[in-house]
Amino acid sequence: xxxxxxxxxxxxxxxxxxxxxxxxxxxxxxxxxxxxxxxxxxxxxxxxxxxxxxxxxxxxxxxxxxxxxxxxxxxxxxxxxxxxxxxxxxxxxxxxxxxxxxxxxxxxxxxxxxxxxx
Amino acid sequence: xxxxxxxxxxxxxxxxxxxxxxxxxxxxxxxxxxxxxxxxxxxxxxxxxxxxxxxxxxxxxxxxxxxxxxxxxxxxxxxxxxxxxxxxxxxxxxxxxxxxxxxxxxxxxxxxxxxxxxxxxxxxxxxxxxxxxxxxxxxxxxxxxxxxxxxxxxxxxxxxxxxxxxxxxxxxxxxxxxxxxxxxxxxxxxxxxxxxxxxxxxxxxxxxxxxxxxxxxxxxxxxxxxxxxxxxxxxxxxxxxxxxxxxxxxxxxxxxxxxxxxxxxxxxxxxxxxxxxxxxxxxxxxxxxxxxxxxxxxxxxxxxxxxxxxxxxxxxxxxxxxxxxxxxxxxxxxxxxxxxxxxxxxxxxxxxxxxxxxxxxxxxxxxxxxxxxxxxxxxxxxxxxxxxxxxxxxxxxxxxxxxxxxxxxxxxxxxxxxxxxxxxxxxxxxxxxxxxxxxxxxxxxxxxxxxxxxxxxxxxxxxxxxxxxxxxxxxxxxxxxxxxxxxxxxxxxxxxxxxxxxxxxxxxxxxxxxxxxxxxxxxxxxxxxxxxxxxxxxxxxxxxxxxxxxxxxxxxxxxxxxxxxxxxxxxxxxxxxxxxxxxxxxxxxxxxxxxxxxxxxxxx
Lengths: 118, 604
Hints:
The complex is a heterodimer of chains A (about 120) and B (about 600).
Chain A: H1 3-12, E1 15-21, H2 26-42, E2 47-53, H3 60-63, E3 71-76, E4 81-84, H4 90-96, H5 108-117
Parallel strand pairs in A: 1-2
Antiparallel strand pairs in A: 1-3, 3-4
Chain B: E1 4-7, E2 10-13, E3 17-18, H1 25-28, E4 33-34, E5 38-43, H2 49-63, E6 68-72, H3 77-85, H4 91-96, E7 100-104, E8 113-114, H5 121-134, E9 138-142, H6 146-150, H7 154-171, E10 174-180, E11 198-207, E12 210-220, E13 229-235, E14 238-241, E15 257-258, H8 263-268, E16 274-275, E17 279-284, H9 290-303, E18 308-312, H10 317-325, H11 332-336, E19 340-342, H12 352-366, E20 370-374, H13 385-401, E21 405-411, H14 418-421, H15 423-426, E22 431-440, E23 443-453, E24 463-468, E25 471-476, E26 478-480, E27 483-485, H16 487-567, H17 571-603
Parallel strand pairs in B: 5-10, 5-11, 6-7, 6-9, 9-10, 17-21, 17-22, 18-19, 18-20, 20-21
Antiparallel strand pairs in B: 1-2, 3-4, 11-12, 12-13, 13-14, 15-16, 22-23, 23-24, 24-25, 26-27
Helix pairs in contact in B: 12-13, 16-17
């Protein structure tokens, strides 16, 4: 019923993503490539990716409570969400970024998945 | 030991250690934690891990000029600062001066969504950055186990932890990693697997409703360490691990003596009183005057200008001062002059170790030369005999190493023999005075004697001990044919003795008089006998003279008769007359003899 509306609503907003990496490690490169692919597919035109290399700016790690590398932080739309890993599991990235909701699934479902996986 | 240790003639570098500054811990570990290596501190909830680690950093920052980084996985900076502010450190000041940094690492399971391979480089970078910022030499990770619940992938986590500890070593920081105890292991998640240089176990247990905290160095690779469980204490001045002193027997033995304040008692103790820095046990039944003897000792010490610290476990300061006034001791003047301090506490207020720690701190604070614990037997109520003895051993060691004279009083029960009931602690004492209530003839008296006194000649006599308005007095007891007597019985017996001595004296003079009169009687008899003899002698001589005269006359008559006979008559008739005259003379002589004999027989 509102799948289209939801997608439009998301598109109406600007997505602000920040990817924390530590140098040009294979994991970081993979993560960036995966992120780019997912964004192009689901958020074409409304996203903005900022790469933070903690080796260069270590003081930034504290602000977003970064432990793992790579970490993707969804700054906007709020609330802030954090995804760790090289983003190779696309399904989980979509759940983590809360993009799955737009496909018309009941709202309760992603939460359940998260709990089970934990 | 410190510096270089020789093995097989080869000098080996000794394991470098970082002093913690925590009272007592550096003694146990022989200098502190392994320098540049991580140490695992584990224990149950609320056992003081966080405070322990925090004090390690604070002492390091303040006393050893080593900046410290505290990485908290559980508490926010502000909460932490509030918690440790209660330890009396100016934490904010240290943070401002970059001597201390607190880094809060939030690892919330609900906020972390795994989507593939990752590592914990972010944490490393954060730590590295924080360490560099203040040039930290000490790092605390409290508690890194929070990661186990936050990160689902244990394989990655374990690999990363291994790398973390390696990394900390490479950075050369002395680190403390805290962990929760559980699952029958030292740590719930097996952290001891990664941190294996030094493991310290903190424990907080309740026995007989008394809580005691204990610390044990489970492992210290490459170093000797105390392996016992050591009680520790957390209070407003931080962490203290007992023993504050090492448990060795190498303290000095002072030869100086000090008065007990009771001159006759000094006399009993070889004439010079107690050794300084020795331990004295005064045991006795209730009301036998143990506290009064202690009070005398204190009074004398304060009068010499020495500070005394008194730990009453039964009475309040006011009560003691009042009671001692009744025997003529004004102790309040010393309190006012700051020479005497009381620290009254019920034994049940805290556990044995807490008491010990309190005593230690009070002593360190007041620097007394004499310490009184009154009565130490009350401490036995809150621990077993073995525990009490262990505590007292540590206390005595501590006091002896500081040359502090210690007086322990001990309450013994009326029925038990104190010499057997206090075997446990008495062996620790140098001098043991016993005050006993002696019941005799419906009266109680106190007898004091010295059971032992190491290193001095001492009296073996029982003295009667009395408390008067002018203090304690010792008197020689009555020892006589009636046995050993004290109190009124002694007074009575002494009076009786006096009477007896009087009557004995009278008897003697009477006997002497009797002897004299006998002698006089004898002499009188001698005189009488002599007189009788003289009288008889005179008479006999008279008789002898008469006889002689008679004989002469007889001879003359016979001659004249013979002359006559020859002239007138024949021989025959002349013989007859001569015979008759002879016979008459003999009769006269016999009668005279009989008369003489009669008075002699009557005199007998």
